[in-house]
C-alpha cells in the first residue's frame, strides 16, 4: 500500500521522479537507497514503484566482489573505490565490467544509472565509452564495450568516439540502444548504426556535475532519458514501442578502452519495480516471451545447435551403419556371382 506523505516530506524523500502516464510526464528524481522500501506512487492510475535492493547498487558498495556470495561481481580491470566503481582507468587497452548475480524477473521496471566519464584526452582523442546491459548471459568479456558480441537481450551504449569517419550529421558522445536475439553483430566501424533502435547526442565527458541515464521498460515500451545538463530535468533520448524482453535476464555495465582511453565510473545503479494496471486485452498481449524482439523489426532467426549425441545413440548409429555396410557387401557379392554365371552360360 502506498505511503502518504505531505508536500515537504515528499520532496525530502525524492530528488527527481518522472512518469509517462496517459501521455503526460512528471519529474522523477532518484530515490536515496537508504530510505524506506515501501511503495511510492509515481503517477495516476495506481502506478507504484518499489526499489529492488537485490538489483541495486550504491555507496559504500557492500556486496560487490568476485565471490559467489556477492550480489555484484567485478570483471577485468574494474575496481571498487570509495566514491565510485571504476570500470576502466584512463589507460590504453583496458576493459572491465560489473554484473548483478541475481536474474531479474520483473515485468515492468526502471533502471537509473549515475555515471561519470572523464579523462585527459582532448576532442576526439578519448574512448571508447560504456554500456548498460540487460542480457541472458553475464560475465562474458568481448569487443562490444567490454561485453560479448551477438548478445541476447538489450544493450544501451554511451559511445564517446566516432569510428565512422564519413559521418558528419552525428555528434559524439552518442547514446544508442540495440535489441539482439543472438544473431546480430555490433558493427564497430559504423558505430552500431545498422542495428540501433534510435539514439541522441549526449555531451557527458569531463562535466563538473552529476550525469544520469534512465532506462524504463513498461508495457513493452522502451524509454531512455538522460539528465546531463545539471538542471535536474530528464530529457528524452529514445522511445520505442513493441519491445519484447524476456524475464530472468541479468543487469550489468561494462566499458573498454583501446588506443584511446577515459575513466569510466559508475556511482550507482538503482532498479525500481513499476506496477501498472493492465486491461484484459493487454494481459493477453503482454505474455512472457522467450527471445528478445522488436515489433516491425525483423531479426534473423537463430538456429539452435543440435544437442550432442549420447553414448548409446552413438553406439546404435555405428552398429547399424556396420550392419548396413555388411549387408550391402553381401548383396554385392551375390549379384556379382550371378553375373559371372550368366556370362559363362553365354559362352557355352
Automatic annotation (TrEMBL):
> Which keywords does the record carry?
Disulfide bond, Glycoprotein, Golgi apparatus, Lectin, Membrane, Metal-binding, Signal, Transmembrane, Transmembrane helix
Question: Gene name?
Answer: LMAN2L
Cited Pfam families? Lectin_leg-like
A GO cellular component annotated for this chain's UniProt record is:
endoplasmic reticulum-Golgi intermediate compartment
UniProt lineage: Eukaryota, Metazoa, Chordata, Craniata, Vertebrata
Chain ranges of the L-type lectin-like domain: 49-274
Gene3D superfamilies associated with the record: 2.60.120.200
- Residue ranges of the TM segments: 312-336
Q: What is its main location?
A: membrane
Q: Where in the cell is it found?
A: Endomembrane system; Golgi apparatus membrane
Q: Which GO annotations describe the biological process of this protein?
A: endoplasmic reticulum to Golgi vesicle-mediated transport
List the membrane topology term(s). Single-pass type I membrane protein; Single-pass membrane protein
MF terms in GO:
D-mannose binding; metal ion binding
Q: Which PROSITE patterns match?
A: L_LECTIN_LIKE
Position of the signal peptide: 1-44
Question: Organism's domain of life?
Answer: Eukaryota
The record's annotation in InterPro entries points to: ConA-like_dom_sf, Intracellular_Lectin-GPT, Lectin_leg
Task: Tell me what organism the protein belongs to.
Answer: Acinonyx jubatus (Cheetah)
The name of this protein is VIP36-like protein isoform X2
